[in-house]
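Support request, please re-run this one:
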Amino acid sequence: MIRCVLGARWSLRIGCTLIFIVAVGLFAPSLWSQPVPLERVAAVNGEDIALADFETALQQALHQIDTPVEDLPDLKLQALKKEVLDNLIGRKLAYQECLRLGFKVDGDQIDKELERVAARFSSAAEQEDALMRAGISPTQLRDRLHTDLAIRQLIDEQVIGLVEVDDRELRSFYNTHPNLFKVPALVKASHIFIAAGPESTREERKAAVVLIRGILEQLDQGVPFSDMAIDYSQCPSSENGGDLGYFEREKMIKGFADAAFSLNPGEISDIVRTSRGYHLILVEDRQAKRKLAFDEIREQLYQNLKFEKAAPEIKAYLKSLRDVADVQIFMAL
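Re-run finished. Output below.
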């Protein structure tokens, strides 16, 4: 299925469980109702798949379907565990094949991928926190990206590169799925945030009001917004001068969104109170809702339709690797 990812730039993503690429996510210490005395869950041609890696992958799968493990029926949880393990086995087999065929990944490729990962976070501090909670060190992240890139090369060369999508197919999909190419109204804004949530005491809330008023006075006197955000904002975006990038109305808390979408570029809001605290908002740009032109999306659409057409072939290719592999499973599913 193809869906729209909304923002200043539009991208497409195909959901595919044929290759499980571990990404940064939340890590649950345990997903089992009873302790499991296993350190490994499977072995692929003599290489182990660790229980910790399986638990991390399972937690990420649960996060994607937005369902806590305790709320998932036993049969569905069992099926999900099997799918996750199969994905990890497929990933291991694919990487072993990369090594056998001599695929290489250079440092520049990994560095570019690290930049893409960093772009998903509003600040370096937010990324470091996510990695820490996931139990992933910077070295481990780099190693995982190295594996991901090698597998992509393998699948591109062995399967996807052999699939073609013509212009007629692209235009047909574009014309028959107009809602996928609609971009809502967007605002690009920065903010200064002073925390004063429900847990704050009366004294803390009073101090927050005094501080945000003082900041607004300095802004009125011409102090640059980004400087004040760096010095005073209590949001991770402060590292970037308060920059929140482009966002649609529904992605922000209501009071904040109402204020941001009422401003013109260059305008700074009055103090905005939300359940989380106090905000000052600077709107830098606005984009009206629109439909992406075919030429804007053609290349991304081509890549994703090509991948979608290749999905059965990828599955068959990974099955062929597994058919001749020595796979041992040590956990009950």
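Residues 294-323 form the longest helix (30 residues). The chain has a mean pLDDT of 86.
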